[in-house]
Amino acid sequence: RKEVEQDPGPFNVPEGATVAFNCTYSNSASQSFxxxxxxxxxxxKLLMSVYSSGNEDGRFTAQLNRASQYISLxxxxxxxxxxxxxxCVVTSNMDTGRRALTFGSGTRLxxxx
Amino acid sequence: xxxxxxxxxHEVTEMGQEVTLRCxxxxxxxxxxxxxxxxxxxxxxxxxxxNNVPIDDxxxxxDRFSAKMPNASFSTLKIQPSExxxxxxxxxxxxxxxxxxxxxxxxxxxxxxxRLTVL
Lengths: 113, 119
What we know:
Chain A is mainly beta and 113 residues long. Chain A has strands at residues 4-6, 11-14, 19-25, 32-38, 44-50, 55-57, 60-65, 70-75, 84-93, 99-103, 107-112.
C-alpha cells in the first residue's frame, strides 16, 4: 500500500460546481498535512495547510480525519482557473528518527465552461 | 525576491553522460530539498539539506546520484552516468524551517524545475 494515495481523476466538473477530493495516508503517526496545487508543466505551490479542526480559505475547505486517516479538499463554486492537479502532502516521523515528507500522486481537476 | 532558481531549465543528453543540475534557494532559507517527478512515480523526495548538511538521502535512487550544498546559496544534483530512466523533471525547493506547519511558516517554495531527457 502506498504511503499517500489519491484518486488520479480526472474530475471533470462544470463551472460553479462543488467538488471534493480525498487523500488517504498509511502512517497513523503522521504529523502535518498540506494541499498543493500544480498547474500543467509548472512547479507545485502550497494551497493550504490542513489543521485538525478543519480550515477554510475562501472557496476552499480542508479537513482532517485522523481516525480514518484521510484528508479532504472541498472546492465550492469552481472556476475555470481551478483546473490543475491537486497534490496532498504528509509529513511523518520515521522509526529512524528522521522525518518523511511524502507527496501523493495528485488528483487532476478540469473545470469546464 | 527572485524565488528559487534552477538551471538549466531543459537538458537533453545522451546515455552515459554526466548531468549537473543547479539550484539557488531563497535567501535566508535553511532547508533545501531535491525532488524528481515522473508520470509513473509522481513527485519523490530525493534528498534534503539543513544548513548545508545532508539530513536524509534515503530517496536517492542509486550511487549514480549525488548532491552537494557547498554553501547556503547553492546546491547541485549530479547524475553520473545518466540513463534513459533518469528522464524526469527535477525540482529544487527551499523553506525556512522544516515544513511542519505550512502557511506563513515553513512553506516550501519550489523552483521551476529542470526537465531532463536522457536519450
